[in-house]
Specification:
Phosphorylase Kinase, domain 1, alpha+beta, Aminoglycoside 3'-phosphotransferase, Chain: A, domain 2, globular
Length: 317
């Protein structure tokens, strides 16, 4: 659990008084995430999530909070911010920007079947469509520029084979840019643990703090690389053809893919794998000081990248 800034009820009380959400009943750290300090907050008025932002500055936060507020107003089940009495979406708590959002119903499903995958595909497309009239723009913070800065930092920690793969994939990706593909605000991290299911119904999309403007297809690839892989130990990371087809068809039913997205698909699947291999390598080898931080194993996405590089025709519609 990433709790870099411990917060107790006494710390919280004067800050919370700035909101019309009642008084704190309980405050519990959330055992997931490695970027921010997150807490389940129960008050006399309801259930919320408190986030203390460890990396994002006050200048950067409006994009993320305004985006979730925008999407929520258009029917996308995501955690829009609760504004305080002064109309602010965030303010300083223990010297760091902090915000609260209403807690969405449900829990993550780490072993999804086709019905759940179809719902996520549809909701991702609806989210992309709902974002078309969102005005503020910010590049994907973990996009190609970040890759170029981060790759040299993690390279010394890699063995010969992985170092060669990283150098080759970076060169390959620089030769493929898809500026003409449909673009807009994307979630960029919609893994299974960032979608809540309330019973059989999708309850919410959470954790938008890697969001940014990029190819919409990149968001699809991020999802497919996590939601649509085979689960058996011997083949972890390989795309399950049926689940992949179901996800893409569900998405396509809401937002049709354009003619240029199909040929870009194999490269963008690789790009999505590269992004998370790099970020997990960085978190593993260059961690930020904190308490109870458990970074994800980078080899999972190293393996996925090797598989995507070896597959000349990954599943499409």
């Amino acid at each position: 659990m990433a709790v870099f800034t411990p917060v107790g009820p006494r710390d919280l009380a004067p800050w919370l008084a700035g909101f019309e959400v009642g008084e704190c009943v309980s405050l519990d750290g959330i055992a997931s995430g490695i970027e921010n300090s997150n807490f389940f907050l129960t008050t006399t008025e309801g259930e919320f999530v408190l986030t203390v932002f460890e990396k994002l500055s006050a200048a950067e936060l409006p994009f993320y909070l305004d985006l979730t507020e925008h999407l929520s107003a258009r029917g996308i089940p995501c955690p829009g911010p609760v504004r305080d009495r002064a109309g602010r979406t965030f303010s300083s708590l223990k010297g760091k920007p902090a915000a609260i959002v209403r807690r969405l119903p449900g829990r993550s499903n780490m072993a999804p079947e086709a019905p759940q995958i179809i719902q996520v595909g549809r909701m991702l497309a609806r989210m992309h469509l709902a974002g078309t009239d969102f005005g503020p723009r910010q590049d994907n913070p973990r996009g190609p520029h970040w890759w170029a800065v981060t790759a040299p930092q993690v390279l010394p920690f890699l063995g010969r084979a992985d170092a060669a793969m990283l150098a080759d994939e970076m060169e390959f990706q620089t030769q493929h840019r898809f500026d003409r593909l449909p673009r807009g605000p994307i979630h960029a991290d919609l893994f299974r643990d960032n979608v809540l299911f309330d019973g059989d119904k999708l309850g919410g999309l959470i954790d938008f703090y890697f969001a940014g403007w990029d190819c919409l297809l990149f968001d699809v690839a991020v999802c497919v690389n996590d939601w649509c892989i085979e689960r058996s130990p011997s083949s972890t990371g390989r795309l399950d053809a049926g689940m992949t087809r179901a996800f893409l068809a569900a998405y396509h039913a809401e937002r049709q893919f354009d003619a240029e997205e199909a040929p870009a698909w194999p490269v963008i699947l690789r790009a999505a794998a590269l992004r998370f291999w790099l970020s997990r390598l960085y978190d593993m080898h260059l961690p930020r000081a904190g308490t109870l931080v458990h970074p994800h194993d980078p080899e999972h996405f190293g393996h996925i990248l090797r598989l995507r590089r070896a597959d000349d025709a990954p599943q499409w519609l």
